[in-house]
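Weekly structure sync, notes
Attendees: PL, DS, HV (note-taker this week)

Item 1: RNA polymerase sigma factor SigY
DS walked through the input record. Source organism listed as Halobacillus halophilus. Sequence as pasted into the shared doc:
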Amino acid sequence: MDSNDIQLAKQGDQQLLAKRLKENYSFLVKYVWKMSGDEQLAYDVTQETLVKAIQKISQYKGKSSFSSWLIQIATHTYLDIKRKQKRAFTYEQSETARLKREEMTDSIPAEWYDVQQALLQLEDQYRIPIVLKHYYGYDYEEIAQMTKVKTGTVKSRVHYGLKQLREELCDHEG
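Item 1 (cont.): predicted structure, written out as tokens:
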């Protein structure tokens, strides 16, 4: 989204904003799905992210790309939803999520399945920066801005999370 587009969207050009959100829709769904391992949750978070982006377009300053700004909103929306779900989580929901993950992994090679499962076992604070760094290629500073933590903390979380992944995958092989 160039600076002219931003100004027009901030001034109420709803068609332009809708176009930009539509262009980023599948990108956001895929990001949240990779982060959460839950397809339905990915769609729910994406929808809520788009609503928040519409409401907060005036807060977009253009310091990062529009897609990075959307990822920041999606990440915080996901974490908020997880906190709320944690309070209301039932066995039935857990079983449904497990079945969805199995369904999602049917067409994935076994090695990737192991990595994906190990990644999903990590706490969000480690999994999110790893996905942003190693799947999407964001640098540490961008991830720090998206997750609202210090750059050193992001580096530490990526390092520690990768260490946990390696340990889990090595244990899984043995």
